[in-house]
Each structure stands twice: as structure tokens, then as C-alpha cells.
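QA checklist item 7 of 12: single-chain prediction sanity check.
[x] sequence parsed
[x] length recorded as 135
[x] structure emitted
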Amino acid sequence: MKSKKSSSVACPCGGGELAACCGRYHQPDAPPAPTAQALMRSRYSAFALGLEDYLLATWHPSTRPETLGLEEDAGVVKWIGLEIKRCEAGREGDSEGTVEFVARWKVGGKAERLHEISRFVREDGRWYYVAGELR
């Protein structure tokens, strides 16, 4: 049986194999995501994989909740897709960026979606999720 971190496992964000895509950012000693979009994708994948520690570590301290309670979603929520609609700034040399996306999942066979414009900031060489505006 292969682990979820195996390189032959598809990345939940749809960008290829997990280890070569978002999985490379999920490890505690890994380099940070280089762009706001890379962080957005890695955060979506972290939600799909139940990686609460990563999500909290990449959430800006000014808006970060204490906990997300992802263990309650385990086996209940099935993440089924991510679509990046647009990005503004958020490149390696930028200090701010936005990513508009649609995330889809199923709960009990019922499809759900989240359309959000997320704001990111880059501090000390790391991108952080700040907040999102629902569409």
C-alpha cells in the first residue's frame, strides 16, 4: 500500500504528482511556496489531505484561527477540484498578491463549491494567506 505522500499519488490541486507539486511544500523543513498561487494550491491540497499544521503555519498571524477542526472532516469531505480563475501580483518579488479560485468538494454525495478571492502577503521571504472574499 502506498502512502499519501508517495510520488505516484496525484496532487489534489491537479498540478501533477503530489511529491513534485504541493507535497514539496508540506514538509516542516521544506522551502516556502515561491508565489501566492503556489501557496494557494498547496493550501487547497493541505485541506484535501487534512494537513492542519501546514494550513495554520501558512496563515498570517493577524488573521489565523487557533484551530481548523479538520479531523472532523476526515472521511466525510471529499475534495474534487480546484480551478484558479486569476492571479494579481503574488510573484516571487512581490509583497502582496491575490488569487481568485473555485474549490469543489462533496459531502455525503452532495457537491459544494467555494468561490473566493484570497489575499496573500509575503513577509521574510514567505507567503501567507491573510483573508478571502467570497463570491
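[x] summary fact logged: Residues 1-7 have pLDDT under 50 and may be disordered.
[ ] second reviewer sign-off
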